[in-house]
Amino acid sequence: MAIERAREYLRQFGVADRIREFEVSSATVELAAKAVGVEGKRIAKTLSFWVHERPVLIVTAGDAKIDNAKYKAKFGVKAKMLAFEEVEPAIGHGVGGVCPFGVKEGILVYLDVSLRRFETVFPACGSDNSAIELDMEELERYSGAKEWVDVCKGWQE
């Protein structure tokens, strides 16, 4: 199960016990915000894209949307999300539970600057009813992020 993969991965950092599992779905930003009890923008959603035939993950704030021009300027290709049925085989987590923890080998993770305005955020942990609260330093470290990027719009206050 993907949540067990995420839990095992986070165990190396001593934070696996901080994973929260809910009785209700947290598969969307709105559902996760309700389950956690925070504003949707503090949900760290993990989006999966194809970049030159390789899957990558971009973690963004819940209220951010991919800006196609910024994305293309950064990655050199048009933004193309993985199809629903491609996500789990390529990433290791299914839609609704995609997170940057315990993903398949070689998956690059990027963190969008839209997250930096928060003290803590809540990414999923491999299932559609889980989350963990992390500060930016923890998110960067535990996700193994390659770098911070600025590829989103709609979140600036």
Verbal overview:
It contains 5 helices and 10 strands, in the order αβαβββααββββαββ. β2 and β3 form a beta hairpin. It is 27% helix and 25% strand. The protein is of the alpha/beta class and 157 residues long. The radius of gyration is 14 Å and the shape is globular. The strands form 3 sheets. Strands 8-6-2-3-5-9 form a 6-stranded mixed beta sheet. A two-stranded antiparallel sheet has the order 1-7. A two-stranded antiparallel sheet has the order 4-10. It has helices at residues 2-11, 29-36, 68-75, 84-91, 136-143; strands spanning 20-21, 43-51, 54-61, 65-66, 108-112, 120-123, 130-131, 134-135, 147-149, 152-153. The longest helix is centred in the N-terminal third of the chain and has 10 residues, at 2-11.
> Would you tell me the structural class of the helices and strands?
alpha/beta
- The helix fraction, in percent, is 25-40%
Sheet with the most strands: spatial strand order: 8-6-2-3-5-9
Largest pleated sheet? 6 strands, mixed
Cα distance spanning the termini: 38 Å
Shape: globular
Please tally the β strands and state the result.
10
Proportion in β-strands: 15-25%
Summary of the model, kept short:
It is built from five helices and ten strands. It is an alpha/beta fold. The model has no long low-confidence stretch (mean pLDDT 96).
